Amino acid sequence: MTKLQASLKVVQTKRGEDRQPVKGDAKHQRVPSPAIANTDLRPRKTTNSGRLIPSLRVKTYQELLQEHLNEKLKHLEAQATQVNRLSAELEAAIQELKAISAQVNTDLKSLRGKADICEYKATSLPYVGQKLDGSLVLTARSIDLYKAEREASSLAQKLRRRTRKKPR
Fold first, then answer.
1. How far, in Å, CA of 78 to CA of 106, rounded?
2. Which residues contact 45 (CB under 8 A, 6 or more apart)?
3. Minimal CA–CA distance to 145: which of 118, 116, 114?
4. Positive or negative torsion for Cα 81, 87, 91, 92
5. What residues does 127 pair with on adjacent strands?
6. Whole-structure pTM over 0.90, yes or no?
7. Mean pLDDT across the stretch 85-110?
8. What's the Cα-to-Cα distance from 38 to each of 12, 33, 45, rounded to whole Å?
């Protein structure tokens, strides 16, 4: 037997099945390996361990785009929340600035007679809102710098009225 004929003999595969070599001869048909021929997407058992091997599911382009879109929408929502949170923090800082300014004005009045260390003008802060269709709108909301003073004045008036109405 020549070397060529010896190489054309039936070859043993790793899994133990016989496979015939293909050499263009019509009588030599290739027997596909069961591991390659089984393209089923279901889990299958391995021969030596009996465990299931999970099959991998390939995602379509549409599914990948949808996942990417969902990820970006979550990021957009988080960023809108961040803008609104920072806006609220900024409003609190401005109110604190105004309170400190009032304290400094009180001290300046007692020392110099002058008492306007800060000037306040109409102010607005960014705000991200949402339309009925779900789209976001970056807008501005005005802040009321004198709200605390009005509330304090209103409360003081109510308390004065109560004390006047009580008979002694």
1. 42
2. 51, 52, 53
3. 118
4. positive
5. 139
6. no
7. 92
8. 19, 9, 12
